[in-house]
């Protein structure tokens, strides 16, 4: 954590005041959703409108410089992303001292991880899983249509209105958890593309079905092990370039791929087929988001 970030053991309502140092700040914190060395995410009340919003703070390390172009680019993209399954960016506030940029988003229900933990029976219905997955894919399709990779997909980024099972994809969290990263990222490939998002969606799909992560691991080492146990230890045949970019394959036990149908016994054959196409080790062989939306698994929607 940086030195002037959140000070703990203080009321939530003054957290953002401590961060921004302005008494007239418009947003009052209700809950800390997450923090890392780059910023934080908070559920807040807009004191002007009395509405609940999500506020993402981005810490700028060198406040003598302008707002980094990477942040400006992301904000510009979010401003044009008008889509029923993407969380709307409502406002952007830049501090006078340039230490933080605040992005204000609509608030749209609990995240999928919370729903699975607190209401496990709510999305066990195969039809509900199918409806949610379809909406996730539709949201990601907009990202890909404008040549943008989400790159942070995990269940915390999938917000669900439990009254009608409407999904909103967020882009307000911390870095993507290890258990949802694509193999090419975990294995040090220098570039990755839209197919990395497809892998993450596949992991989320499986988690909705079995109510726990398909690929488990709190560190990248453990996640690589988990992927290899499920998908088989990669080789140049299954993942071209792996021996060039990852020099430690010999540190992992050799494994053969498992049958996904045995890992997800409650998923219908069409769903297994789609999941297999999402979780290909070679990113070039993964199904695209648009092709996934046309898959016969969704034929009865």
TrEMBL record:
Reactions mediated catalytically: L-threonyl-[protein] + ATP = O-phospho-L-threonyl-[protein] + ADP + H(+); L-seryl-[protein] + ATP = O-phospho-L-seryl-[protein] + ADP + H(+)
Documented EC number(s): 2.7.11.22
UniProtKB keywords: ATP-binding, Cell cycle, Cell division, Kinase, Mitosis, Nucleotide-binding, Phosphoprotein, Serine/threonine-protein kinase, Transferase
Gene3D superfamilies reported in the protein's UniProt record: Phosphorylase Kinase, domain 1, Transferase(Phosphotransferase) domain 1
InterPro entries: CDK, Kinase-like_dom_sf, Prot_kinase_dom
GO biological process: cell division; G1/S transition of mitotic cell cycle; regulation of G2/M transition of mitotic cell cycle; regulation of gene expression; regulation of meiotic cell cycle; signal transduction
Database matches in PROSITE patterns: PROTEIN_KINASE_DOM (PS50011)
Superkingdom assignment: Eukaryota
GO cellular component: cyclin-dependent protein kinase holoenzyme complex; cytoplasm; nucleus
Residue ranges of domain Protein kinase in the record: 27-298
GO molecular function: ATP binding; cyclin binding; cyclin-dependent protein serine/threonine kinase activity
The family this protein is said to belong to: Belongs to the protein kinase superfamily. CMGC Ser/Thr protein kinase family. CDC2/CDKX subfamily.
Protein name per its UniProtKB record: cyclin-dependent kinase
Organism: Citrus unshiu
Biological classification of the source: Eukaryota, Viridiplantae, Streptophyta, Embryophyta, Tracheophyta
């Amino acid at each position: 954590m940086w030195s002037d970030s959140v000070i703990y053991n203080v009321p939530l309502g003054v957290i953002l005041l401590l961060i921004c140092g302005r008494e007239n700040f418009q947003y009052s914190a209700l809950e800390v959703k997450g923090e890392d060395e780059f910023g934080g995410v908070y559920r807040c009340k807009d004191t002007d409108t009395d509405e609940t919003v999500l506020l993402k703070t981005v810490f700028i390390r060198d406040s003598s410089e302008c707002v980094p172009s990477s942040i400006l680019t992301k904000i510009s993209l979010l401003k044009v992303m008008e889509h029923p399954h993407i969380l709307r960016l409502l406002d952007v506030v830049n501090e006078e001292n340039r230490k933080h940029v605040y992005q204000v988003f609509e608030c749209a229900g609990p995240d999928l991880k919370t729903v699975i933990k607190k209401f496990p029976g709510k999305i066990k219905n195969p039809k509900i899983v199918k409806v949610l997955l379809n909406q996730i894919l539709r949201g990601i399709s907009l990202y890909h249509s404008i040549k943008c990779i989400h790159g942070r997909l995990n269940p915390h980024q999938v917000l669900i209105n439990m009254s009608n099972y409407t999904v909103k994809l967020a882009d307000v969290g911390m870095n993507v958890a290890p258990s949802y990263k694509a193999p090419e990222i975990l294995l040090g490939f220098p570039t990755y593309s839209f197919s990395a998002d497809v892998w993450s969606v596949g992991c989320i799909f499986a988690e909705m079905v079995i109510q726990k992560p398909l690929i488990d691991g709190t560190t990248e080492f453990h996640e690589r092990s988990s992927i290899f146990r499920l998908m088989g230890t990669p080789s140049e045949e299954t993942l071209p370039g792996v021996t060039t970019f990852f020099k430690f394959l010999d540190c992992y036990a050799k494994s053969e791929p498992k049958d996904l149908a045995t890992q997800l016994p409650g998923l219908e054959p069409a769903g297994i087929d789609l999941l297999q196409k999402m979780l290909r080790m070679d990113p070039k062989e993964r199904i695209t988001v648009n092709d996934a939306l046309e898959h016969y698994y969704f034929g009865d929607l």
